[in-house]
């Protein structure tokens, strides 16, 4: 993917109420300037699974009702993701960001992504407005049994993102036995609300303060 530039900035301050300005370097023509807030939490996989039902019940008693989510089958992904409205209104710059990597939304790139055991969730299969993409957990050298779980979120509706996060946990945690570092990439203005949901609602530990992923693409 020639021409791509990726960077990460970190701070312990919360994100601004509005998305930060997107600045492009002079003399470097780009087609995509995109920033994502990075929400990093940690928890024990089996402990989280065991208390997930109780956590959801407590949330429901407090008035929280997760929005419906639908899991796309492998054969359904192209029709949804390559639809013009989805590419234009949901994906940043008509680009799929998967675990820090940009992929132009094309049939050939979906073929590459199909090999990665990804899970796509949408709020509805017919003209979705929110989508999330989780990558199969992979081991990391933090101790025995530790894994990373990355989730990329596209869309600006926190109620839908909360429901989809819960479902990704149910999809990805079975089979894991150790600790999990879960990294959620999302619109910067949603960081505070989602961080509060993870901590107060699910009892997850915030592993790091607010940070950003900044991506420029001149030739995806």
Radius of gyration: 17 Å
By CATH reckoning, the class would read Alpha Beta
Might you state the CATH topology name?
Aminopeptidase
Unreliable spans: 1-6, 9-31
Assign the CATH architecture.
Answer: 3-Layer(aba) Sandwich
Number of helices: 6
Shape: globular
Structural features, described:
- It is a single chain.
- Helix content is 28%, strand content 30%.
- The chain has six helices and twelve strands.
- The model is unreliable at 1-6 and 9-31 (pLDDT under 50).
- By secondary structure, it is of the alpha+beta class.
- The strands form two sheets. Strands 1, 2, 3, 6, 7, 8, 9, 10, 11 and 12 form a ten-stranded mixed β-sheet that branches. Strands 4-5 form a two-stranded antiparallel sheet.
- It is globular, with a radius of gyration of 17 Å.
- Strand 8 (138-139) and strand 9 (147-154) form a beta hairpin.
- It has helices at residues 45-61, 77-81, 84-89, 107-113, 158-172, 191-201, and strands at 4-10, 32-44, 70-71, 95-98, 101-104, 119-122, 131-134, 138-139, 147-154, 179-186, 205-206, 211-217.
- It has a single domain, classed as 3-Layer(aba) Sandwich (Aminopeptidase).
- It comes from Phrynosoma platyrhinos.
- Residues 69-187 form the Histidine N-acetyltransferase C-terminal domain.
- Residues 1-27 are annotated as: Disordered.
Key structural traits:
Aminopeptidase; Hisat_C; globular; 220 residues; alpha+beta; 6 helices; disordered N terminus
């Amino acid at each position: 993917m020639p021409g791509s530039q990726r960077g990460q900035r970190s701070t312990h301050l919360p994100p601004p109420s509005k998305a930060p300005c997107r600045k492009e370097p002079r003399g470097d023509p780009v087609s995509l300037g995109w920033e994502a807030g990075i929400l990093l939490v940690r928890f024990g996989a089996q402990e989280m699974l065991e208390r997930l039902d109780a956590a959801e019940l407590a949330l429901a008693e407090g008035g929280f009702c997760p929005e419906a989510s639908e899991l796309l089958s492998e054969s359904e992904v192209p029709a949804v993701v390559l639809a013009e409205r989805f590419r234009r209104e949901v994906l940043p710059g008509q680009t799929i960001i998967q675990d820090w990597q940009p992929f132009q939304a094309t049939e050939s790139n979906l073929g590459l992504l199909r090999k990665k055991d990804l899970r796509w969730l949408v709020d509805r299969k017919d003209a979705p407005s929110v989508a999330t993409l989780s990558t199969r957990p992979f081991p990391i050298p933090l101790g025995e049994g530790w894994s990373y779980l990355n989730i990329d979120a596209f869309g600006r509706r926190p109620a839908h993102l909360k429901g989809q996060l819960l479902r990704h946990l149910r999809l990805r945690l079975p089979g894991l036995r150790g600790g999990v570092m879960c990294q959620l990439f999302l619109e910067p203005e949603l960081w505070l609300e989602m961080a509060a949901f993870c901590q107060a609602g699910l009892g997850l530990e915030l592993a790091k303060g607010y940070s950003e992923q900044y991506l420029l693409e001149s030739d995806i």
